[in-house]
Design brief:
The protein is α/β, with parallel strands linked by helices. The chain has 30 helices and 26 strands.
């Protein structure tokens, strides 16, 4: 609820102007009593009491007019009496003036509840009792009295009748606005000025542009409806004003210097937006309906037409133009939001540091999805975070007042679908989709607000869905009354054209001529498509390999010793006067000794990888929960001054031409990973790292993994180099802090779609990161990273491992004598160190331990070469910590068996539905038994 209302009085003490009585707040000091008795304010007495409580606590916290009122004797009168008995004294006038102020405030807060925003409602909403003048102690006898209104509607003095007229025009017409939840007075005042003062009506050229866009949107849908009967297209019919809205928004953007727009949207109206905003050719869209997409293209198996993304150029009628892209999106509706935000953030950074005006983010939502899907709240929460903000997003809700077959009463608990946006204090404009001129005005308001305050803004385009969820549904089965009204309602184009003709702005011939021209363009494209389809004969889809030989060519990943020492020196070469926390400084100092001691640990190896990439001109972005420090206190990529709290990023002091951005994310996996995926699309030259706090929590982002990371290249020809860092390992911390679900990622591996690795040496981790960043062929990289191994003394590397060599997909056993080997244990990750310790402690020389560092693409050649060193009759076992039905075994077992041409055994925990036990003691017993079983 708004906490600061402004009563109507600034010219205190002026009692008359001309011949009219002017009611003001009297300026009379009063000692006052501790409790406000005051006059009766009806249903809105809460407003006066609220302001008085603030006044008692701090008089300066309320406006001057309220202070004057509370100092007046009438405010402290111990008995109440009815409004119509109030004497026409100065004190009575003061009360009346404040009541008018309270009325203005109430309309600003609740006026939207009476707004005419629903095109399916044939009558205006019932009067809200909280907005009736009698609720403020005012009556019809006050309508022609003049009151000081302190610049309301740009005027100093108005009659109550005029005040009501402005309030109803501003807040109860085709536009209903929610903005009083915004805490900033500057922002609220900005909105008030633009709503409460007369606005310019569109001229004839603008009206014709609106009519043209409506005609294009309608004709496109009706054309598809008649030519491709029964095919799903998720039409925009009933919400054609969305095209008018986007058109007005982009025109405004061009005039204000924006250079690009990125749109994220679900499937409703997507084809219409692609055709009429992005400029995708009609022929190309018709080809997709004809199912004539070239299956030999890089698009792989492809996707349905209403999921596809596109890039094009929006062209304004005045000749302006701007690149516009629509991000590809699966049926998981709102997940495209954070992906698009990541794309925009990356593009803005390329345009120039802090240049948020260069690229405009636009997210188009459905009403049910905006209210129902949690990723919306996560994305809104990102909007003002340092590592994620994009200067404000324009959210457009195509509000069909229906979610598939579910009505709002069953789909949300809130009054509006938009209420989630209040959490970030975004203004919300509810607009009647059948009033396209109001839609244009709202588009301009929304863009201007975004430009002024760099905050999100929401447009709730209230319309309807003329057909079912898809064109094959019959919505009258579940919403019969609603669809009776829809069937009887003319389209918004017909309504608007009729209004223009009746006003004499255009002729009926002009209306029909414009529509006929557009239909002819569609028909020509359709005929051309049919002719092309008859002559085309697509070939067969090429079979993609299973990944065994799909390893990209090696690149040089070793660095010079000088580069390594330069990077490490940055860890202790701090700004003058910077005070490092006493618990962190020793860790940084130890890093400077590791190069010579030959004990380079994981965090230092990672620092060397990132620092050397920066020196090579490769930008690096790392984001995740606690990623600046590191979940396990190992990284300290960003230091905080112990005394001043100023932050310092050591790796940005290397003198490189690019930067390292280390960002702590909000407590989210779904939107956070989606954002990094989007970012990686727009900045392929950047090493983009997303780190889970624990690998287990990555399952909160499973939609992103399934729909984007694993399959986007096959579905949309869209390549990403995003890297996932997932702490993994069974260490007695329970079932939710043990497993990054290796099996789930491997289950998604096919056709060389990504790389999955579990390195066991810091040096190998170093080379893996550099190989991924420097390689030409980008694919997602999933790394299962260590926890206890971060500080394991045996899990360290020497400087030579960084200045020579490359990433090794298989680590051979360099301690074993091949001729004496009777058993070969093949494993990945931390379990190697447990096995190796048991072997050394037991003085066993007949067992070799081979580490598979890259799980996919399966290192067939490397593993075959290593196993070929040992006797053919040696027993081969796979060893893993995870239960038998989890981990790498279900994926790697069959491949290793094919490789060795014999059955191999698996040493693991028993099959289980949970990844680990809850007892640390039980875990230790299990681990000991598992290791011992590998050597029996």
């Amino acid at each position: 609820m708004e906490r600061s209302a402004k009563p109507a009085a600034s010219a205190i003490g002026r009692m008359q102007r001309g011949k009219k009585a002017i009611h003001t707040v009297a300026s009379q000091p009063h000692a006052g009593q501790p409790v406000l008795h005051g006059q009766e304010f009806g249903l809105n007495e809460w407003l006066v009491e609220e302001q008085y409580e603030r006044y008692l606590h701090d008089p300066t916290s309320v406006d001057e007019a309220w202070r004057e009122f509370f100092r007046s004797p009438s405010a402290m009168t111990p008995t109440r009496h009815e409004t119509n008995t109030t004497s026409d004294t100065a004190d009575g006038s003061a009360v009346k003036a404040v009541r008018v102020a309270a009325l203005i405030h109430a309309y600003r807060v609740r006026g939207h509840l009476m707004a005419d925003t629903d095109p399916l409602t044939t009558h205006q909403r019932d009067a809200h009792p909280g907005l009736d003048i009698t609720a403020f102690g005012l009556g019809t006898e006050d309508l022609d009295r003049a009151f000081v209104v302190d610049d309301f509607a740009g005027r100093d003095v108005m009659t109550l009748r005029d005040v009501l007229h402005v309030l109803r025009e501003s807040y109860c017409g085709s536009l209903g606005t929610q903005y009083m939840h915004i805490q900033s007075f500057e922002e609220r005042h900005w909105v008030q000025q633009r709503l409460e003062t007369p606005h310019r009506c569109p001229d004839r050229a603008e009206q014709l542009q609106i009519l043209y866009r409506l005609g294009a949107a309608e004709a496109f849908e009706t054309f598809l409806h008649t030519k491709y009967v029964g095919q799903k297209r998720y039409s925009l019919e009933g919400g054609e004003s969305a095209i008018v809205l986007l058109d007005a928004l982009l025109r405004r953007s061009i005039r204000n210097g924006a250079r690009e727009a990125v749109i994220g949207m679900a499937h409703r109206g997507r084809l219409n937006v692609l055709a009429n905003i992005v400029g995708k050719s009609y022929a190309e869209i018709f080809h997709e309906f004809e199912d004539e997409v070239d299956i030999r293209s890089v698009q792989g198996s492809g996707d349905v037409k209403y999921h596809l993304g596109a890039e094009g150029t929006y062209r304004a009628p005045d000749g302006g133009a701007m690149p516009v892209s629509v991000v590809a999106n699966p049926s998981h509706l709102e997940i495209v939001g954070p992906v698009a935000e990541g794309v925009v953030r990356a593009k803005q950074e390329v345009a120039g540091a802090g240049d948020v005006s260069s690229v405009l983010p636009v997210l188009v939502h459905g009403d049910a999805a905006f209210a129902g899907q949690g990723v919306v709240g996560e994305t809104l929460n990102m909007s003002q975070l340092p590592g994620y903000r994009t200067g404000g997003t324009v959210h457009i809700i195509i509000n069909n007042q229906l979610g598939f077959t579910t009505s709002p009463t069953h789909g949300r608990s809130s009054t509006y679908a938009t209420d989630a946006a209040k959490t970030v204090e975004a203004p919300i404009f509810h607009v009647n989709g059948d009033d396209p001129e109001a839609v244009v005005r709202v588009a301009q308001l929304a863009f201007d607000y975004r430009q002024a305050f760099h905050k999100d803004v929401v447009i709730d385009l209230i319309c309807y869905r003329r057909h079912g969820h898809s064109e094959v549904d019959d919505p009258s089965i579940t919403q019969p009354a609603m669809y009776d009204r829809i069937d009887a309602r003319p389209s918004v184009r017909r309504l608007y054209a009729g209004a223009l003709v009746r006003r004499g702005d255009i002729t009926e011939q002009q209306v029909e001529g414009a529509l006929r021209d557009y239909r002819e363009r569609l028909e020509r494209a359709f005929v051309e498509t049919q002719a092309a389809s008859a002559s085309d004969s697509p070939g067969l889809l090429a079979v993609v390999g299973d990944g065994a030989d799909g390893v990209p060519p090696e690149v040089s990943t070793a660095i010079t010793e000088a580069a390594a020492r330069h990077v490490i020196a940055s860890q202790t070469d701090l700004p003058p006067g910077f005070t490092v926390h006493p618990r962190v400084l020793p860790q940084l100092q130890r890093r400077t000794t590791m190069l010579d001691a030959g004990t380079i640990d994981w965090a230092t190896a990672e620092t060397l990888a990132i620092g050397s990439l920066l020196l090579d001109g490769v930008p690096v972005r790392l984001a995740g929960q606690d990623s600046q420090r590191g979940t396990f206190g190992q990284r300290h990529a960003v230091l905080t001054d112990r005394r001043t709290s100023i932050e310092h990023t050591p790796l940005n002091s290397l003198g490189a031409s690019v930067e390292f951005a280390a960002c702590n994310s909000m407590l989210s996996e779904l939107a956070a990973l989606a954002f990094e995926y989007g970012y990686s699309l727009a900045r392929p030259e950047t090493l983009v790292l997303w780190e889970a706090q624990f690998g287990d929590f990555a399952n909160g982002a499973q939609t992103v993994v399934d729909e984007y990371i694993a399959s986007s290249e096959q579905k949309w020809g869209q390549r990403s180099g995003v890297t996932l860092l997932l702490p993994h390992g069974l260490e007695g911390q329970g079932p939710d802090h043990s497993s990054a679900r290796v099996e789930r990622f491997l289950q998604l591996c096919a056709q060389e779609n990504m790389t999955v690795a579990m390195p066991s040496l810091p040096g190998n981790y170093f080379h893996l990161l550099r190989q991924h960043a420097l390689g030409e062929h980008r694919r997602p990289l999933v790394i299962f990273t260590p926890k206890s191994m971060l500080r394991l003394k045996s899990a360290t590397s020497t400087l030579t491992e960084f200045t020579t060599g490359a990433f090794r997909a298989v680590l051979p056993d360099e301690t074993a004598d091949p001729a004496r080997i009777e058993r070969v244990l093949v494993c990945s990750g931390k379990v190697f160190y447990d096995l190796d310790a048991h072997r050394r402690n037991s003085h066993l020389s007949n067992t070799a331990i081979v580490r598979v560092e890259r799980l996919y693409p399966f290192p067939e050649h490397e593993l075959s070469t290593e196993l070929g060193r040992y006797p053919a009759d040696a027993e081969v076992l796979w060893v893993q910590e995870e239960p038998e039905n989890q981990g790498a075994w279900p994926f790697l077992g069959p491949r290793i068996q094919r490789l060795t041409k014999r059955a191999i055994g698996c040493i693991s925990r028993a099959q289980a539905p949970a990844p680990a036990v809850g007892s640390a003691r039980r875990h230790a017993v299990e681990q000991k038994e598992l290791v011992a079983a590998a050597f029996r």
